[in-house]
Amino acid sequence: MTVERPVEIELKYAVSDRTVGDRLLNAESLAGFRPTDAPHPTQHEDRYVDSADAALAGAGFAARLRTSAGGTVVSIKSTAQAEGSLHRREELEGPADRTSDVAAWPASPARSLILELCGDAPLVELVTIRQFRRRRDLELPNGGAAVELSLDEVDVVSRGRVVERFLELELELTRGSVADLAPLQALLDGHHGLSAAPGSKLERALQAARAGRSRPAPAAGAAAVAIVADPRPEAAETEREAPDDGADAARQAQDQDAADPGEAGAPAVGDAESDTPAAVAAEELAPDQPSVAAAADVLTFDDDPVPTEDAPIDPEALQPASSSESDPGPAQDSQPAGPGAGGSIETLEPARVRSPEDGPVEGAVIDLESLEHTPELIEEAQAAAPLVLGPAGRIDEAGEIPVGKTPGVTAEDLHAEAGRKVLRFHLARMIAREPGTREGSDPEELHGMRVSTRRMRAAWRVFGDGFRDERTARFRRHLKTVAARLGAVRDLDVLIEATETFAANLPSSERDGLEPLMSAWREQRDENRRVLVREFDSGGYRRFVDDYRDFVLTSGADVRQVDPTDPHRVRDTAGSRIWAAYERVRAYESVLKWADVPTLHQLRIAAKWLRYTLEFVREALGPEAPALISRVVALQDHLGAMNDAEVGAHMARAFLVEHAGELSDSQSGAISRYLVAREREVGRLKRTVGAPWRGVSGLTFRRALGRTLATL
Question: What is the CA radius of gyration of the chain?
């Protein structure tokens, strides 16, 4: 049987320096190729399959199943013919169904090839590859050659465990001839931080899976960890992640060096000749290997800046406030700060921030911070009902360890034990929200569970240096997984809710025109919910909850030893951490007048970490702490709404491009007007950032912060 097979031609590079990959992805020109769009983030979970006798691998092919909101697609690729960084391989695609036999799939050349090579033998899973991909299209001027550039952060999952992480840069030829790639290849070959990738991702994944299975099994009770790459800028902060107990020394060293997938670079690939899919598959295939469910293609919105056209910030909005404002203005800046410095001591008033009664912010569409960081959350500890963390990680009235209305951190607490209090407080709330999140009728249950995972991840960044990395890294890793699953659903919940609010005041014809967009988002949200519930049902998640519960309830567990003269109590450590977090926020003052959306988004992240650092030790800080937090929240909300509007515009634009031939004129017009409204909202929020900025950068705030830290 002869099948016409298109040939995929691409340049592939292993990336050892993440900053190099980011710089190339965002470059304005590469060897004469110029971008036609902004980077588009997507997340994939690919299952590679073969027959039990490795019929596909033996014939020089690999089969990949990828599921998205639009369905499941099978891709068949031949073994790559590599000439340095240049790879050629045949590729076929077709529709598939993960729950049925190949013979029942819709007809396609890919299905025909599988049936030709494997007959009626069932397909079993080889390995799962999870990747966060940022891609953009480049082309030569005047309609010349075009390539798709992608930077891929890859996790290799075998038997429910991540066995390898690496970063890869790919440039796939989408228009033109192989000769058109020569300038790009000349530019990138030998480039600092890059090396030619000798094989495919699958070849590297199979090597890692084989090596992983030769290692000692994890100790009894250790959690089976599944990790989703976290691309958000906040993930770039140092977060050392060591392997579970039982991993060998080489794996431990690799994980200790990798802050996030791809961050520490890509280790060298082994001998491609001896580790091709054909050579490895027969050894790796195991009919009893557990299947890893494929996740939907999702955008990670929360902290992934998406560039937009610059809208100028109003310079007047950034000028010092008048004497009637809370900031005393330049005349008072020369006065010494702090109590006893002379002059009056001003009282810091809380900033006016939004509450649910105010209604949604116009144009805020993704993960609207005003829904999550409102004034009542500043007092949420006082309003929360007491919880009791019972056996097996469940909230149980009969449990022996009470969790009160607040974490209860005091100035005299040991640094590590203060962190344990915060983690225990939010773990209890995460578990309490799980049943409602599973049931799915109340989006606020999922919202609350996500808030708890966020607070815990932030707490690890603030207090994590008080614990032993090699004993606690698995908790941070699994929290990242759970947070990613929750975020994939929550982001779309907020997007849909805010867009429905936007549409409520439109004529009925306009509302109908937005329905294709809304329908696609609802389908994607439902698929993400199914992936989330599968995570909850997994044995790895239940072991994680049980082990984590034991950790937060056991005083002294896994604490790093410190010298008695080292700072080790909250009164010794909190002040410098809070002030350093504030310095990171104030550093944006010199660029704020000209800042673009990505820069302002980074400011939002810095404000978020200042806010969390204050909140965790709020009870030890005195009466002015709530007003300080309120002002930081006001800045964070404003910048969050701006980012939300930008991401909403980006998604609407992507939908219009992808479905251009399927939409009616009225539907295209309605979605286009929605897109324009979001872009205008981005510009408005950029121009008006001055007011919330002054609330945090002014002398009044700095003096109040100094007085607050002096109480420790």
Answer: 27
Which of these, 287, 226, 293, lies nearest to 47 by C-alpha position?
293
Nearest to residue 239, comparing CAs of 54, 467, 560?
467
DSSP 62: E
Nearest CA among 297, 660, 677, 300 for reference residue 499: 677
Contact 194, 13 (CB under 8 A): yes
Number of CB atoms found within 10 A of residue 401's CB: 13
CA–CA distance, 567 with 415 (Å, rounded to integer): 8
* Residue 710: Cβ within 10 Å count: 11
**What sign for the dihedral angle of Cα 630, 636, 640, 641?**
positive
Contact status, residue 639 vs residue 691, Cβ threshold 8 Å:
no
- What is the rounded distance in angstroms from the CA atom of residue 564 to the CA atom of residue 378? 34
Q: What is the pLDDT of residues 339-375, one digit of tens each?
A: 333 334 455 666 654 443 444 333 333 232 333 333 3
Cα–Cα distance for residue pair 465/240, rounded to 1 Å: 10
Measured distance CA(19)–CA(193) in Å, rounded: 9
- Please report, in angstroms and rounded to a whole number, the separation of the first and last CA atoms in the chain: 79
Task: Note the pLDDT tens digit of each residue in 271-327.
Answer: 333 333 333 333 333 333 333 233 333 223 233 333 333 444 544 445 444 333 333
Please give the backbone phi and psi of residue 160, each rounded to the nearest 5 degrees, phi first.
75, 10
Contacts of residue 683, Cβ cutoff 8 Å, sequence gap at least 6: 311
For residue 143, what are the CA distances in angstroms to 26, 31, 176, 185, 644? 21, 15, 10, 20, 34
- Give residue 338's region: left, alpha or beta (phi > 0; psi -120 to 50): left
Name the DSSP letter for residue 296.
Answer: P
134: Cα separation from own chain's centroid: 12
Q: Which is nearest to 229 in space by CA: 404, 18, 463?
A: 18
Cα distances from 279 to residues 58, 79, 199, 201, in angstroms, run 8, 12, 13, 15
Q: Which amino acid is residue 157, in one-letter code? A: V
Rounded Cα gap, residues 472 and 460, in angstroms: 10
Q: Residue 591 contacts by C-beta under 8 Å, 6 or more apart in sequence?
A: 599
Q: Which two tokens stand for residue 201?
A: 């991702």
CA 257 to chain centre: 20
Closest C-alpha to 232, from 483, 585, 520: 483
Q: Looking only at Cα atoms, what is the longest distance across the chain?
A: 92
Strand-pair partners of 389 = 395, 401
Contact 444, 573 (CB under 8 A): no
Per-residue pLDDT at 125 exceeds 60: yes
Is there a contact between 32 and 183 (Cβ–Cβ < 8 Å)? yes
Name the β-bridge partners of 569: 414
Cα 57 off chain centre by = 34
539-578 pLDDT, tens digit each: 889 999 988 988 988 888 889 888 888 888 999 999 999 9
Q: Which residues pair with 133 in a beta bridge?
A: 42, 152
Q: H or E element: which one contains 286?
A: none
SS (H, E, C) 284-316: HCCCCCCCCCCCCCECCCCCCCCCCCCCCCCHH
User: Which has more pLDDT, 157 or 270?
Assistant: 157
Both tokens of 22, joined, read 């980011």
Other CB atoms within a 10 A radius of the CB of residue 47 amount to 22
Name the one residue in this structure whose structure tokens are 């790093």: 560
